Amino acid sequence: MQQPLLTAVDAFLQKTGMAESALGRGAVNDWKLVRSLRAGRRLYPETEAKVRSFMDQHHATAPCGNASDASCGKRIEVSAECAE
Question: Which of 10, 31, 62, 76 could be a cystine partner for 21, CB 3.0 to 4.6 Å?
């Protein structure tokens, strides 16, 4: 069973240091998305899938160390050391 979206979003934001507005804008072009979720907004399954996909892609493109540094979100080649 997947964890509830807001729980996944909170964990993602804490791990990456990304702003709530950046997540919403990047995932579905809605900078108020996270605030709305906290207020009880429900999403269509397709929208939730876009948010989860954005978070998954962001993790895949983040550098090995701190994902909130200047290169965060840019597509990079993952070295063998990162993949282990």
Answer: 31
- Taking the mean position of all CA atoms in its chain, how far away is CA 26? 9
Using only C-alpha atoms, what is the Rg of the chain? 13
* DSSP E strand boundaries for 1-84: none
pTM above 0.85, yes or no: no
Instruction: Copy the structure tokens of residue 40.
Output: 């009880």
Angle (deg, nearest 10), helices 5-16 and 45-61: 20
**Amino acid of residue 35:** R
- CB 17 within 8 Å of CB 68: yes
10-43: pLDDT as tens digits: 999 999 999 999 999 999 999 999 999 999 999 9
